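Pipeline run #58 for the internal structure catalog. This entry was flagged by the ingest filter as a single-chain record with no existing model, so it goes straight to prediction. Upstream metadata was stripped on purpose; only the residue string is passed forward. Reviewer on rotation: M.T. Logging verbosity set to normal.
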Amino acid sequence: MSRMSYFWNRVRKMDWKAMWKTTKLLKKRSGKGRLWLLTDMLKCGIRYNAGYIDYKIAQMYRLNDEQRKTVITRGISNEIVRRMNDKAYWHFFDDKATFNETFREWIPRKWLRIDEKTDPEALYNLCRSFPALIGKPLEGSSGQGILKYTAQDWAEGPEAFLKRLRQDQIGILEEIVVQHPKMASLCPTSVNTCRIATLLGDKQQGIVYAFLRIGNGKVMDNVDCGGMAARIDLDSGKLLTVGADKQGNTFIKHPMTNTSLIGFTVPFWEEAKDMCLKAAEKIPQMRFVAWDVAITPDGPTFIEGNSFPSHAIPQFAAHYPNGIGILPEFEKFIDLP
């Protein structure tokens, strides 16, 4: 799809009410008029395939044209995924049970697929082994539909609990990951995961970026659920930046625990990188994958892999104070138009 075709396709599907609401927010932040912002958003849409959410997250109103060229917008991200990932192989990542089975050597936790074939006895054996479990839809992202269950939920027996899980549209029930105490010191209510993106490019292969996702009071660390993210230095595993959330708020220290973010070192960092690089070779038709990695007291483990990595997390403006985005990092791996 050409750049103009993509632009007009996005215009047809645009949520104009949400876009107008965004200009109100950005008017307050930037000091610029809403008409100027609206015009500039449209300009960025045509030139850089940027949607209004891209514009807000990367704070494109503060960037000149040369800086804007370095932002990975939705249109560019879509093109990278289309080129790198064969859709016939997305199911290895999109189906959480299939993912757990495919990458089981790095997923030691117990889990059970929930469908019409689920054995109540197998469910009973899983439930009696743990005080709580996490249920997830088989497919989905952004933490949607994920629920925590406790012994009270299965007190009436496995058949009744199985019926409840099906009503809740749960596709997989898992042992809860216990994170490393150092990771819990950031935010104890969520498992704070590393988002590590591997890219099997034509120029080189390896890790293109890494971020730590940190919860902010909820069970999920996802930025769509109110969490924050900070860049991880690929060599040292240290956080390079302040935490930032999707609304543009920034944090030097975590607001719940008062733990300093900049300089925080992720435990088992080398092991986490090595795990992702080895896993990236299992399905070579999927050349660009964002892995969600939890750090436990025994080392790293996968939570899931993303066949269509979000371009929002690595584009928060607070992580690029000089206005130069992450596109140059991708260009070390692949040629972009």
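catalog note: The chain has three domains: 3-69, 84-94+179-330, 110-175.
catalog note: Residues 16-30 form the longest helix (15 residues).
status: ready for reviewer M.T.
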